[in-house]
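Q: I'm writing up a methods section and want to include an example of the input and output format. Could you take the sequence below and give the corresponding predicted structure tokens, formatted cleanly so I can copy it straight into the document?
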Amino acid sequence: MPEADVFRAIADPTRRAVLELLRGGDRSVSEVMEPFRISQPAVSQHLRVLREAGLVRVRNVGRERRYALDPRPLRAVDRWLRRLVIDPAGHVLRIQKEE
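A: Here is the clean output for your methods example:
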């Protein structure tokens, strides 16, 4: 099963939005801040949580830190979810509607 840190990290809507932004390529903290109405320390905190969960890589380019999406933990989540909904014969399990 994927690490609990990954689930905690993606539970937050702002962090999910940051991951979506990083799908387009690496960004600096200031570039990550642009679409959000939150402070630089708040963005840095979100990036720290994502990095500690393994969802984001950081590299130094001169004096700037660049953040990039690392999809490997999300692939682990995808594999785990697929095992829950696909039976051994490869059929998708039907989900019953709640009444």
